[in-house]
Design goal:
The protein has a two-stranded antiparallel sheet with strand order 1-2. The protein is mainly α. Helix 1 crosses helix 2 and helix 5 packs across helix 9. Strand 1 and strand 2 form a beta hairpin. It is globular and about 60 Å long.
Length: 267
């Protein structure tokens, strides 16, 4: 079955709601020429986006990248959020120590958003291909353009934050110090309602749910003549459909047509 909204993505839900709430509150106080109390400055630094247009892109990307949480356990995804945030803060602190002016960057979840570009680029297959001005592109280019737009609202402040987040994402991808195995306990996740039963999937498993040489198994009496594309299955799973539903839908539309399979699953 298709997964809509924040189904199986409670940490992403908490991030989106926290970012939206703190951003609206901060922008409202700014319009009234007021400021948050000092006790809230830490939350402001983590979640508050200062400009309305930037807020739309930032929250939209946090929501879009919830598919990453669905392919990991919520515990590992929450650990990734904490690690990326910590690494980005450490980079910022080091830049301040060396007196670099780039150490002063925009508050908000920009580093977290750009860190998600790494798994999105490496492990999520494109759904559609198209040609523009004789260049062959795919639908993933729109996500990259949204990230670029987020960084260009205030380049002097946003670009350093984005580069720090991208660096943190790459470090997480390399599994430095075994950080991909870290997980937040379920008792802690209860604070954001993350008690759903989810499979614990490694970071690299986002790209492929089966071994390269492993063929889809079907009962002998209903073994299909159609060959199901593993890439198409992975694309549908990344969108939130179960592997079984994805394979069944693809069998009905020829084995490779992702868009037709989506229509089949949504009907």
């Amino acid at each position: 079955m298709a997964k809509f909204g924040f189904s199986d993505a409670p940490v992403s839900r908490a991030l989106v709601f926290a970012t939206a709430s703190m951003s609206i509150l901060t922008q409202s106080l700014k319009a009234a020429e007021d400021h948050l109390p000092k006790s809230f400055r830490f939350l402001e630094a983590l979640f508050a986006i200062q400009r309305p247009g930037e807020m739309v892109f930032g929250i939209g990307l946090l929501y879009w990248f919830r598919a990453i949480e669905r392919r990991m356990s919520s515990g590992r995804f929450a650990a990734q959020v904490l690690l990326v945030t910590g690494i980005s803060a450490a980079i910022k602190h080091l830049l301040r120590i060396f007196g670099w002016q780039w150490a002063h960057w925009t508050p908000g979840p920009t580093p977290l958003v750009t860190s998600y570009v790494v798994p999105f680029a490496l492990y999520f297959p494109p759904l559609q291909q198209f040609e523009f001005l004789h260049f062959k592109l795919n639908d993933k280019v729109f996500t990259y353009l949204a990230v670029i737009q987020l960084l260009l609202w205030a380049p002097r402040l946003s670009l350093p934050a984005g580069l720090a987040g991208l660096t943190a994402g790459l470090l997480y991808h390399t599994n430095l110090g075994g950080m991909q195995h870290f997980s937040v306990p379920k008792r802690a996740l209860a604070l954001v309602g993350a008690l759903e039963q989810q499979p614990s999937v490694s970071y690299a498993a986002i790209s492929q749910t089966q071994q390269p040489n492993q063929r889809t198994q079907f009962p002998e009496q209903v073994r299909p003549a159609v060959q199901v594309s593993h890439t198409a299955v992975s694309a549908l799973v990344a969108m939130g459909f179960s592997q079984q539903d994805a394979e069944t839908a693809l069998l009905q539309v020829g084995g490779e047509n992702v868009q037709a399979a989506i229509d089949q699953l949504s009907s």
